[in-house]
Amino acid sequence: MKPPAPLPEKPIPPPGTYVIKIPKDQVYRVPPPENAKRYEKLSRKKPSRSACRCCFCWFLGLILTLIILAGIAAGVLYLVFRPKAPKYSIDSLSIKGFNLSSSAPLAPEFDVTVRADNPNKKIGIDYRSGSSVNIYYNDVRLCNGKLPVFYQPSNNVTVFLTSLKGSGIELTSAVHKALIDGENKGTLPFSLKLRAPVKIKVGSVKTWTITVKVKCDVTVDKLTANAKIVSKDCDYGVDLWITYVNGLCK
């Protein structure tokens, strides 16, 4: 009996089958010819997307860091300086130029005494040029002027006089009659609107220019130089940014 034939070390493929050996690095790195262009296009895009994504993440991280640092700085400044809002009021009004017995255009004049109170212990207020003060009656602007330029130190009350003038003011019959009736009753309501560009000073550092807006509703008893204030109410707001148009703050 013949011993069985030894088995070959490698299996022999059946007839009609061919085995082609391709290096492993070519299988993974060389695409088929029909996909070569697409592979090249995609391989070029990946690095650019990755770089853009990395730059965006870096930029976003920088912005978040700056916001956090700004918030911390603002909190520290608030705790150190304890800023308080300034207060404004009108002490007196002197009125001239109202001749209600005539229908001719008016040239009203108001001398307004304004009190500005800065209650802050470590913050000064620098009042700049470009301010505006207007007085209205029933939405009719009667006169205008501006504030003096001055620096108000910390923990200080400053009282200043500003002169407002108007000319060629023509009143409607309804407004003219309302002024006469108000003077007879001893109640003449006016509205004063003030806009002042200021810089806040902390130590030796000044901020950018911001705008203080003050609106006072004032009622007087008559249209004379010795008019008395019957009632008054002032409110104010702040614009953190200021723009200039023809030299005037807006």
TrEMBL record:
GO-annotated cellular components: plasma membrane
UniProt keyword list: Membrane, Transmembrane, Transmembrane helix
A GO biological-process term: defense response to other organism
Pfam families per UniProt: LEA_2
Predominant localisation class: membrane
Protein location: Membrane
Membrane topology qualifier: Single-pass membrane protein
Residue ranges of domain Late embryogenesis abundant protein LEA-2 subgroup in the record: 113-216
Protein origin, superkingdom: Eukaryota
Positions of transmembrane segments: 54-81
PANTHER family: LATE EMBRYOGENESIS ABUNDANT (LEA) HYDROXYPROLINE-RICH GLYCOPROTEIN FAMILY (PTHR31234), NDR1_HIN1-LIKE PROTEIN 6 (PTHR31234:SF72)
Name listed for the protein in its UniProt record: Late embryogenesis abundant protein LEA-2 subgroup domain-containing protein
Source species of the chain: Hevea brasiliensis
